[in-house]
TrEMBL record:
Protein name, per record: Phasin
Species per Swiss-Prot/TrEMBL record: Mesorhizobium album
InterPro entries per UniProt: Phasin (IPR018968), Phasin_subfam-2 (IPR010234)
The Phasin domain, residue ranges: 54-142
A Pfam family the protein falls into: Phasin_2
Region (Disordered): 1-31
Superkingdom, natural source: Bacteria
NCBIfam families recorded: phasin_2 (TIGR01985)
């Protein structure tokens, strides 16, 4: 029987909790092991995500390189066509017999070149739009996958 100071009642058959150091060490070890496992899983996921991102950037750079080459080739083709049209026009101007024929030939050439330039601009615009979509697709897909994985976690 034990007495509590300041109280007039007595406590009988009280068991005190015993501290077992081996159980405490085991619990600390279990928590530490769980923390290590969680860290390994997080690192593994981070590594996987970084590899996915790297592949997306590599794909984007490859698409940009291909697009750059395509734009360069189309630009060279347009410049070549414009130069050939200019030389053909000069040859036609040399053969002109009257001022009226000169003005008629010049007006027809300018109108044709405006139409050709518009068509060339449309072609380049289409290539650039497609390139923008193609280049952003791998990164967009990786981002969407990361968001999906984040929501699932």
């Amino acid at each position: 029987m034990a007495k509590i100071p300041g109280k007039t009642e007595t406590i009988e058959n009280v068991e005190s909790a015993t501290f077992d150091p081996s159980e405490a060490a085991e619990q600390v070890r279990a928590v530490a092991e769980q923390g290590v496992e969680q860290a390994k899983e997080a690192f593994s996921k981070l590594q996987s995500d970084s590899e996915t991102t790297q592949k997306a950037f590599e794909s984007t750079l490859e698409i940009a390189k291909t697009t750059r080459n395509e734009v360069s080739l189309k630009t060279i083709a347009a410049l070549r066509a414009n130069a050939e049209a200019g030389f053909a026009h000069l040859e036609a101007l040399v053969a002109v017999k009257s001022p009226a024929e000169f003005f008629e030939l010049q007006a027809a050439f300018v109108n044709k070149q405006i139409d050709v330039s518009i068509e060339q601009a449309k072609i380049l615009q289409g290539v650039m739009l497609r390139a923008g979509e193609d280049a952003s697709k791998p990164i967009k897909d990786a981002f969407e996958k990361a968001l999906k994985d984040l929501k699932a976690a």
